[in-house]
Amino acid sequence: MPFAQIYMIEGRTEEQKKAVIEKVTQALVEAVGAPQQNVRVWIHDVPKENWGIAGVSAKDLGR
Questions:
Q1: Among the four residues 7, 24, 30, 57, which has the most C-beta atoms within 10 Å?
Q2: pLDDT single digits (tens) 11-20
Q3: Number of domains the chain contains
Q4: Rounded to two decimals, what is the model's pTM?
């Protein structure tokens, strides 16, 4: 059972998350031949203050 974990800075819409789930699922089906019903995708919404870029939080960078 393929299991994909996606880490993203918070703020994506529900529609964007649905698109990520659909496209990652399809990529795993095509790449490894897994049945679609066996693919799992977990999106981690990370708070901006918990995501660092070059020593600065994404929140402080205005992301």
A1: 24
A2: 999 999 999 9
A3: 1
A4: 0.87
